[in-house]
Structures are given as C-alpha cells and as structure tokens.
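User: New here, any thoughts?
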Amino acid sequence: MDNLSRDLDRARGRRDALASEATTLAAQIAEIEARLSEEKKRRERERVLSEIELIKTRIKQAAGAFAPVVDGLSRAVESAAAVVPEARELNSFLVSVATEVDSVLDPLLRELDQRADAVRSGHAALDLPSSAVEAPPIELPKDTNERLLRFPAWLSRDKETDKKETAESPRSTAA
C-alpha cells in the first residue's frame, strides 16, 4: 500500500509538473505569436510606405517630364502662331492644362504624405491595390522627335473637316 501511495504521489507530481510546463509553453507560444503578428504588421507597414514613396517618386518624375514637354510645345506653337493664328488656341489650352496639373500636384503629394503618416501611426488600412505600383517608371525620351504627349482622339481638331461641314451647311440650307 505504501508503494502504491508513493507511485500515486509521483504520478501526481509529474502531472502537476507537466501541467505547469504546458502552461508555461502556452504562455511562450502566445508571446511568440504576438511578436510574430507585430512583426508582420511592421513589415506590411514598411511595404505600404515604400509603395507610397514609389508612387510619389513616379508622380514627381512624370511631372518633371511633363513640364519641359509642355514648355517646349508651347514655344513651338508660339512660333507657329505667326503663320497660323489658330495655333494660339492650342497654346492657351497647353497653358491651362499645365496650370491645372500644377495646381493639383501639391495637394496630391500632401495627401499621399498624410496617408503615409496614417499608416505609420497604425490608423490606416495597409492594403494597396497591386496595380498602384506595377506601372513602369517614366523615362525622358532619348530622341527629341519621340512623342511624349499624345492627345486623345476627341481632343484633336480636324480643321479641314470642320471647314467642309460649315461650308456644306449653307449650301444645303440654300437648296
């Protein structure tokens, strides 16, 4: 009976030691999981911040490429205006586009900075669409004849078509 009592006490002692070790291991696992979660969040914040910086860099780079093109085109159009007075309309359009782009760039960059600050402080969602950073960087043309600025089709004005339509309209009403 004494042997059975000692065996029972030893078994209970081992059970208590194992239970204590299991509790300790569970606490260590919880601590490691918390550290792992924090590290994942930190890395995700760094990734998002890096992507925001990349977006800002691309915007600044594109704006840097846009301004000289508009300036060069505007100067060329000015000289063309001596021969074709309607070219002043294009020059006026170029100035208005450049002004509009310039007026929205600084607020856009400030908004990106605010979003980055929110990510740093943990007050913003950390998901960015993958298409936000997939576009290739803007490169200045190596050849000065390469077209940087391509206007959409609706913007181009075919003066001859307009003139033909206005010339045909009076005849059709007169007939």
Remarks:
- Residues 144-166, 168-175 have pLDDT under 50 and may be disordered.
- The two ends are 130 Å apart (CA to CA).
- The chain is about 75% helix and 0% strand.
